[in-house]
Design goal:
Layout lengths: L1 H33 L6 E5 L2 H7 L15 E9 L5 E9 L3 H13 L10 H5 L7 H10 L10 E2 L2 E5 L7 E3 L7 E4 L2 E3 L22 H7 L3 E3 L11 E4 L26
Antiparallel strand pairs: 1-2, 2-3, 4-5, 6-10, 7-8, 9-10
Length: 261
């Protein structure tokens, strides 16, 4: 009987130690699974290789900013595959630091981005009749991009804010726009004009993406009265002023009768 009791105590001790061992193994695995890589964000002048690719594609003679006014950004982001990637953007050098800060917040919030490849690298050797045709291809591929010298598709008589490097389109396929007589861009993304549905990478009024941009004086074109552009943010700026912060008025605080835009 004594030997049986000793055997039971030994077995209990063994199971206890085994449970502790399994617990520590689980914690070690959990730390490896959930520990995110630190955010990486870097701004530099345009590398020569990037300049060569941009000329005749997203930049050409006559664009409102020169290549020497643009910055090349490398940024961490969470992909749709729930893995960390390093993306590339080209922006005006005066908003480069803000974009890094914004994407650091999006990374901390685990906001997913499908891809963030420079348009020239995405299209490779494909030929397009106009810059807008190239832009349409980039948007249909759901590529997040910033600088792109072209007309404003909603106001064709002027240059797009993208032409100055002060605008960015995020997950354009899942945040489409209405650009002309109800036409959706990207053309196959009409389903996602319904903002009541949910899909990874969508931007909603008042969410983390929305607030990260507005806190630095950027506007969201989801409020356009003539055609929403849910992918698009641009910095509020003029030759004389740059807005550092916008105050968001939720529906309950809005003044009736003021045009949306």
């Amino acid at each position: 009987m004594l030997l049986f009791a000793e055997g039971c105590r030994s077995m209990n001790l063994l199971f206890k130690n085994l449970r502790l061992l399994l617990f520590f193994i689980f914690m070690a695995c959990a730390q490896n699974i959930f520990a995110a890589e630190p955010f990486f964000g870097k701004a530099s002048t345009l590398p020569n290789g990037v300049k060569k690719q941009m000329i005749g594609q997203s930049w050409r003679q006559g664009c409102p900013v020169g290549l020497d006014q643009l910055s090349y950004l490398q940024l961490s982001y969470w992909g749709f595959d729930n893995k960390v990637h390093i993306g590339e953007l080209v922006v005006h050098q005066q908003v480069a630091r803000e974009i890094i800060e914004i994407f650091k917040q999006l990374y901390a919030a685990h906001f997913p981005i499908e891809k963030m490849i420079l348009p020239e690298k995405l299209v490779k050797n494909k030929k397009f009749n106009t810059p807008v045709d190239m832009m349409n291809y980039v948007e249909a591929a759901d590529d997040t991009s910033a600088f792109f010298c072209r007309i404003d598709t909603q106001s064709p008589q002027k240059q797009s804010p993208h032409s100055f490097g002060i605008a960015i389109d995020i997950n354009p396929f899942y945040n489409p726009s209405i650009i002309y007589q109800g036409k959706t861009e990207p053309a196959a993304a009409g389903k996602y004009l319904d903002r009541n549905i949910s899909h990874m990478g969508m931007i909603k009024e008042g969410d983390r993406v929305f607030n990260s941009f507005l806190d630095r004086g950027w506007i969201w074109d989801g409020f356009f009265s003539s055609g929403a552009d849910y992918m698009h943010f641009n910095k509020v700026t003029s030759r004389y002023y740059s807005v550092e912060k916008l105050k968001y008025n939720p529906p309950s605080q809005r003044i009736s009768g003021i045009p949306a835009w």
